[in-house]
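PT: before anyone asks, these are the final sequences, not the draft ones from last week. 741 residues across everything. Please model them as a single complex and drop the result in this thread when it's through.
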Amino acid sequence: MELLSGGDMLVRALQDEGVDLIFGYPGGSALHIYDAIFRQKSIKHVLVRHEQGATHAADGYARSTGKAGVVLVTSGPGATNAITGIATAYMDSIPMVVISGQVPRDKIGEDAFQETDMVGCSRPIVKHSFLVKNAEEIPAVVKKAFYIANTGRPGPVVIDVPKDVTNPAERYPYHYPEKLRMRSYTPAGKGHSGQIRKAVALLLSARRPVIYAGGGVVQGEGSELLTTLARHLNYPVTNTLMGLGAFPGSDKRFLGMLGMHGTFEANTAMHHADVILAVGARFDDRVTNTPNKFCPGAKIIHIDVDPASISKTIVADIPIVGTVQSVLADMLEAFKSSEEQPDQSAIVDWWRQIEDWRERHGLYTAPRYRTDGALIMPQEVIRAVYDITEGDAYVTSDVGQHQMFAAQYYHFDKPRRWINSGGLGTMGFGLPAALGVKIAHPDKEVVCVTGEGSIQMCIQELSTATQYHLPVKILCLNNQALGMVKQWQEMQYEGRLSNSVYEESLPDFVKLAEAYGHLGVKIERREDLHAKLQEAFAQKDRTVFIDVYVDPSEHVYPMQVMPSGSMRDMWLSKTERT
Amino acid sequence: MRRIISVLMENEPGALSRVVGLFSQRGYNIESLTVAPTEDATLSRLTLVTIGDDHKIEQITKNLNKLIDVVKLVDLTEGSHIERELLLVKVRANGAQRDEVKRSVDIFRGQIVDVTSSMYTVQVAGTGEKLDAFLQALGEHTIMEVVRSGVSGIARGEKILSV
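LR: through. Structure below.
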C-alpha cells in the first residue's frame, strides 16, 4: 500500500472524492496541506481575499451545481472568519465541506497562537464536524464528511485538522474506503405509502388547493416532477424565496413568491386554501406571518426529508418523510392511475378567484410602481436585466430591498438559477457567491444583484475576480441608504433613520471597480437606463460594476402586516392595506 | 410533562457536547443528565430528564435523532419503566440524632456508608420523588451536603434499547 503524509492523504482523499475545486486562504496551521496542493494538478485552488468569501463562493458553486463546495482555511481567525459562511450554508441546507487547520495536537487547549476551538465554535451551525486525531483516519473522515454533507437534508461539515497530523515527515498507508457504513446515520428514502395514499386522496378532494414549494425541491432535484404534477392537476403553485425556480416562473400556474414580500395573489390564495401541499419547505416565520392565524381553513400535507422540519412551527395533517424526488414520483404515479379526478368546476372557480386577485393587485398584471417619474425605479432595473439576459442568467443576490425586488421581478424558469441567502440573510453573500457560480458555469451570464450596503461587506473579492478572470456583472441598486432597514424605520419607527444612512461617505464605485482592473458604469438618469445596461452586459469578457442610482424613497411591497397579521394582511403600498 | 429520554450514542469525543448544545441552542430544558459507556465500549448511554408538552418532546426527540452521533433513543416515559437515582448525603448526627437519622435511613431503605463521630454519610437509591421525600424527612437542619446522580432508567419487561 502507498505511504503518504497526512497532508498528502487529505488532498488525495479529496481527489478520490471527485473534488476539483477548493476555495481557501492559507495560514500557518494549514501550510502542510497547502504544500500538498501545490504538488498536485487535478484540484484547482482559488485564493479568496477573506475566508468569508471562500465559504460564500463554495456555497454559490454548490447551489448552482448541486455538488458540495469545498473550503480550506487556517486555524484561529481563518476558521472564525469562515463561520458566517458556514452558518449561511447551514440555514439554507447547502452541502459544503470546510477543512480548517488547527494547532498541533499537543498545543490544543494551551491558548496557542491562532488557536480556536473550531469544532466548538461551529457546532450549532454544522450538520456534523470532525476533529482529526491521527493521520490514518483522514480517508475515512473525508469520505464520511462528503457523505453526510450531500445526503439527507444537506448541510455543511467541518473537518478540523491539527498541523502535526499533516506532518510531511510521517507517512502512513493510504486507502480510500469505497463503501461506508454509519450505524448512526440513515437519511430518509422513500415516503410511507399509506401516507402518500392519504395525501393523494386529500389533494383530489381539494376545492381550493395550493402547492407551496421550497428550497428542498431545488436541492432534492424535484423540480421536473413538481412541475409535471402541478400541470397534471392544474393546481396553483407558489414558491418560497429559496424555492424560486423550482416551478417555472413564467408558467401561468405560478402565483409568485409567498410570504413577507410575497405577491398578493400567492398570500391571499394560501390564506383561503382548503388543502396545502408543502414540498421541501419549512414554514419559516417569513412565510407564515403569525402562526396561529396561518391558513385557517387548510389541511396541510408536508413532504420533507428532515422529520424535524415537519410540524415544527405549523402542525401537518399528513406528514410524509422522504426525499422530494421519490415522494413526488410516487404521488404522480398514484394521480395518473387514479380513477378519481379533481372536481373540475371547483378548480375552475378557484382559478377564476385567483385571476381576480391577480387583476386587482397582482405584481405582474400591471406595474405596481411609479412609471412616470424622473427617478429610476429599482423594479424596472430588474425587469430590464431580465429582458437583456433573456431570463436565463444565474442571479446571485445580497440581502435587503434589492434581494426582494430581484425575487419578485426576475422570473426563474429553472432551478439553481436564483442564489441567495434566504435563511440567515447574510449581507456580503452575493459577490463571492457569483464568483463561485461563474467558475462552475464559465459560459453563462452571472449577475450579482446587490445594494451599496451589502456589496461593501465582501467587496474585497473584486480582487479575486481579477486574479481568476471571472467576468460577472455586479448590479448595484444604489439607494444611498440601508434600504430595508430604512423601510422598517419609516414604517415602524416614525421615520427615525438610526444609523441607516452614510452621510456622503459612499465610495465612487466606478473608480473602485477600475482600481481592481474592472469596468465601472454609473447610471443616474432614467433615460439612460436601458442603453447603458445593454452596453454593460455587452462586455462579455469583463467584470462590470453597474452602479444604478434608484429612487431612494421606494419601499418593497407587498409587505405583510406585522406583528399579529395573517398571510393575507398586507401593505400594498405606502398608503394602501388589504 | 416530565419525560425520561434514553439515548444510545457513539462514544466519541464531542458527542456529549452536541447533545447538551442542542438543548441550549433550541431552548429546551434539561432537568438532569447522566452518561457513561455501555458494555460495548464504542457506545455511550445517556439518560436525560426534560420537561415539555407533547409538541416540544417530539421536537426534542426528532432533533436528537438528527445528531449524527446519536444511534438510537427511546422516551422511557411512553411505557412502563424503572427509574433510579442515587443520592449521597452527609447528615449531622450527634447524640439522640444518631438513632433518629438511622431510623429514617431504614424506612427509606438507604444505607449508612461512612461514619464519623458527628456525621453519617447516607446512600439512598430510588425515584427522584423518593429522594425528595427522604431529604424532607431528614429536615433541613441536619443536612450538610447533598449530591444526586441524576436519573437513570430502563424499560420494564422484554423491551431493550440496543443497536
